[in-house]
Model the fold of this input.
Amino acid sequence: SDRAIWEYARDHDFVIVTRDADFSEMSALYGQPPQVVWLRVRNTAKAPLLNLLCTQRESIEQVLLMDANYRDAAVRLEDCRRRQIEAEQSQELRDAWSEIARCKAAADWTCVQEQADRILTSLAPGDVGARNEYAVASLRQAEQVVNDEPETAFEMLQHVKDLEVDPLPEGFTTIYDRLNHYLTGAAAYARGEWQAAITSLTKVQDFRNSRALIYDGHVHLCQAALKAGDLQGAQQAVKDAQRIKPDGAEAQACATGITDATYDSHVHLCQVALQAGDLNGAQQAVKDAQRIKPD
Done:
């Protein structure tokens, strides 16, 4: 087969002389060795072909030699370029680490992060040390913006998690979890999912405006419970709100709503008992109503 001929010539340093264009295509596809002499002549007897090869032998050998020398030179040039690139990258890597040391001394964490990212992106993608420096720099930057820009801080830390840095810098998990709870709760609050918001934000009550959002969440739960006629649920929600802000006007308004709704329910029970001829039940209901609103 063509493949077997090709491999034999390659392994024994032979030149393939052929009228078959397939070998020329294989040479273009796989490269050399072996070298290929493609005879682009019409079908003729063997004798004329041998005569052609003999008369052109010197020219053919010169071309083959030039081609071999060219390939050797190309290989040497490519090796030289490779070593030059490696040397340049090594110098760039040393420069990047020097810059990291300088930036750390100045507590310039943005600079540290940029240089570590440069190493990981183009100079040494698997450098564990660069990953660790990137993680520490990201944590320090996150600490600086966490209160004003929690979303930005969380994105920085999430990128570190994506890099699978192990071990994570000390304090990383604490601030990451706090941001995660806060942002999850804030997102739930924005969607009107009050109980889910309260559950997440309660874990970080001392962070940013968490307590205000928790308070509002309880007020909303109270209002929703009132609309649904769930007085017990409303009472629990208003108690939770008042524990956070005892003098909160919104919670007080909801408490007043509970009082009015409870009074109305007793009045309604009195009316129903009267209609049913249940005087004892009516008297009890009116007493309960008057305890709430004596006048």
The longest strand covers residues 16-18. The longest helix spans residues 57-105. The radius of gyration is 42 Å. The chain has a mean pLDDT of 85.
